[in-house]
DNA sequence: GTCTATACAACGATAGAC
DNA sequence: GTCTATCGTTGTATAGAC
């Protein structure tokens, strides 16, 4: 996990602080960490502000409240559906399943799995989060991806691909089952990709 | 979702009730509902007691606290690993994947999906719950199941089967993606079972 | 009369808002 | 920093069962 957000400092001593930009960014980074570790309910405004090295009142000042901070910090995922689609569609459709597994694992591993865990942990009672998740994965990613390789049952195929990837994420990042939680990406890719490929282009009946 | 457990009579006087009431059972039923809807943190003792039509102090009186109530209401799953194993192992190993998918969907559909959702939502900051989940599924169910059909990479296979089923559960019960959330069980079985079967007995490299 | 299930009030902690 | 709301929990009085 990344370490504390605002390094003690020495590097921005002189003169007046350059306005709020630093504080806002520090709060965003701290919020990603704390929400990832604690989930929405467990993360307190004071803990986030503390990690950012500012007063808790700054959360209200810069974001208007805990909800808004969560939306900006966590729901704003570290990759856009657009860019993700471009990466995945670049190559042989027969290898799409492989690219999907590898790309998702690579991105989420780079986040320490924290963003995935934060999302899952925060779906609780927060229909807004569930809705955002649904939009992102089904409409934004898999829903766009599937029509490029399949003609029938597109929604079902998109659901199944999402289910498999979410399941892998749950096992690797949230529940931390071994060996999947610790093995290298390529082992998982080799094991899972054929199943994704079947969901994409195989017969489902 | 089922409605309130004890009809509200407006007659909540102090003191012992006339015979026939079962406050303990009412609290258990209400707790399953509320934990399912809100997760562990979101579910308040007062909300649970309110739905059961009794005072919040009853939770402490009958269970000793919120933690213990959660344990009895949610972690006490509606089926034992033992009985589950017997059901799944009864039949042709070549159809095991199919039986796994059908059995899990049938059981969880019967619970309104609430128990699954409660578990997932409560894995949050509660390592104890995650650990119980891990034990139940990996050691208690899939870990026992896989060795009967596979010789190599048993742990990996068990993880992958668990991942696929958890993913389906997430999509059907928690995130509620369509069409998987609403379609009949057999459609899902037909679509998913071959992939489970590959995880059980296929080549993973 | 005794036991116990129950409701109500209040406590201490802690959260987010302002 | 203060305010207010709400949480889980505890103490206690009371109504009914036995």
Task: Spell out the blueprint of helices and strands.
The structure is a homodimer of 205-residue chains.
Chain A: H1 21-42, H2 45-52, H3 57-63, H4 66-75, H5 81-89, H6 96-110, H7 114-122, H8 127-145, H9 154-174, H10 185-201
Helix pairs in contact in A: 1-2, 1-4, 1-7, 5-8, 6-10, 7-9, 8-9, 9-10
The structure holds a DNA duplex (18 and 18 nucleotides).
Account of the 3D structure:
2 copies of one chain form a homodimer. Chain A has 205 residues and is mostly helical. Helix content of chain A is 67%, strand content 0%. The first copy, chain A, contains 10 helices and no strands. In chain A, helix 1 packs across helix 7, helix 6 crosses helix 10 and helix 8 packs across helix 9. The first copy, chain A, is elongated and about 55 Å long. In chain A, 41% of the residues are buried. Chains A and B meet through helix 1, helix 8, helix 9 and helix 10 of A and helix 1, helix 7, helix 8, helix 9 and helix 10 of B. Chain B binds a DNA duplex (18 and 18 nucleotides) through helix 3.
Q: How can the largest sheet of chain A be summarized? A: none
CATH homolog superfamily of the largest domain in chain A: Tetracycline Repressor, domain 2
The class by helix and strand makeup of chain A works out as mainly alpha
The number of helices of chain A is: 10
Oligomeric composition of the shown chains: homodimer
């Amino acid at each position: 996990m990344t370490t504390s957000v605002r390094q003690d400092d020495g590097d921005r001593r002189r003169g007046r602080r350059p306005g709020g930009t630093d504080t806002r960014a520090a709060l965003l980074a701290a919020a990603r960490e704390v929400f990832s570790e604690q989930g929405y309910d467990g993360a307190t405004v004071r803990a986030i502000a503390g990690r950012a090295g500012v007063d808790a009142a700054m959360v209200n000042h810069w974001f208007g409240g805990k909800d808004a901070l969560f939306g900006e910090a966590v729901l704003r995922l570290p990759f856009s559906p657009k860019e993700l689609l471009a990466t995945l569609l670049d190559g042989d459709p027969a290898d799409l399943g492989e690219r999907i597994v590898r790309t998702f694992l690579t991105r989420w591993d780079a986040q320490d799995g924290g963003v995935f865990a934060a999302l899952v942990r925060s779906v609780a009672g927060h229909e807004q989060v569930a809705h955002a998740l649904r939009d992102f994965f089904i409409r934004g990613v898999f829903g766009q991806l599937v029509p490029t390789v399949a003609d029938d049952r597109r929604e079902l195929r998109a659901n199944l691909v999402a289910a498999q990837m979410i399941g892998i994420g749950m096992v690797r990042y949230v529940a931390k089952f071994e060996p999947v939680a610790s093995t290298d990406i390529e082992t998982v890719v080799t094991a899972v990709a054929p199943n994704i490929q079947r969901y994409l282009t195989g017969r489902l009946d």
